[in-house]
């Protein structure tokens, strides 16, 4: 560095010095030592950084080793015959998830807790009659399972920035049997949440006020066979929610739930018994699909608000039971009943409103839903029983204002924008 500085003294555009005084020479020496010291400090910094990385890796290995030892102990507790020991194992695993040094290790703890719920389980209704010992074992196991559900709920209620929050992780509850449990106010954000193939057999399972934000939530293949499952006030925002399920008993309530954008998929769902309640629910934007759904029994109430987006009942089969659309508002929505079969039962659209919306009834067949299809349409087509007939291939009906079809006075010719048809009520 000294000689480099010495050579620069003879560089162009610098005033040549035939004789260097002691001050210039001293400045040159200081500059050389400063540069060398800086280079040494840089080397020391790199060495310190490398040493810090090695120390951190060593600490992580130690933490991982300790975590693995605690994990092995907790998992062995879950397999103990004593319910008290299993409860201790459940809490130990939850604590391990909170203290996990990496996200992957936390996910492993969550996976084990979910796997415990997936183990074979006999619901109370299937217990041998009069077997006190079997019932005692059942009650003990149920308490352990509900503790797992409660711990999952409590961690999903924490803010996403909380160090112990489990939001954004995956929850595989495939095939789990639920006969009670509380997941209310939990937030499932991002990640994948699967209840596919689960069975809700009795008791009360609450998702009230829960939030499903982004990600994928699947209730595909779920059997709702008894008890009460409540989604009251739940919020489904973005992402995809799959309810291709069988509603064969009990009560499933979506009262006051909010579905905002994203996709809500009830296609090919089976409604054969029990009660499904969508009263006061709000569907805003996005796509709501009941395509191919089978309404063959029970009661399904849709007294809800559909604002914008698309509502599809393409190919749905209304065979029996009661499907109630009374007071439903389809505001600026596209409602598609193309190819729907109105065979029997009760389908009631009394007081339903379609302001600014579009209703597609092309290729629909069967018995005219009350309040949706004016009887004069059947008469104009020459059907024998106009009050209870549906004309195949109606086409597209546009309803610019609420109740326009019901406001037509006798003797007034009006175009309801049905493709190729002008109706004159008698």
Annotate the secondary structure layout:
Blueprint: H1 2-8, H2 22-78, H3 83-99, H4 103-118, H5 132-156, E1 171-172, E2 177-178, E3 181-182, E4 187-189, E5 192-194, E6 199-200, E7 204-206, E8 211-213, E9 216-218, E10 223-224, E11 228-230, E12 235-237, E13 240-242, E14 246-247, E15 251-253, E16 258-260, E17 263-265, E18 270-271, E19 275-277, E20 282-284, E21 287-289, E22 294-295, E23 299-301, E24 305-307, E25 310-312, E26 317-318, E27 322-324, E28 329-331, E29 334-336, E30 341-342, E31 346-348, E32 357-360, E33 365-366, H6 375-380, E34 396-399
Parallel strand pairs: 1-5, 2-6, 3-7, 4-8, 5-9, 6-10, 7-11, 8-12, 9-13, 10-14, 11-15, 12-16, 13-17, 14-18, 15-19, 16-20, 17-21, 18-22, 19-23, 20-24, 21-25, 22-26, 23-27, 24-28, 25-29, 26-30, 27-31, 29-32, 30-33
Antiparallel strand pairs: 32-34
Helix pairs in contact: 2-3, 3-4, 3-5
Protein described:
It is a single chain. By secondary structure, the chain is of the alpha/beta class. It has a domain at 2-60. The chain has six helices and 34 strands. The strands form four sheets. A ten-stranded mixed sheet has the order 1-5-9-13-17-21-25-29-32-34. Helix 2 packs antiparallel against helix 3 and helix 3 packs parallel to helix 5 (132-156). The protein is elongated, with a radius of gyration of 34 Å. The N and C termini lie far apart (108 Å). The model is unreliable at 375-426 (pLDDT under 50).
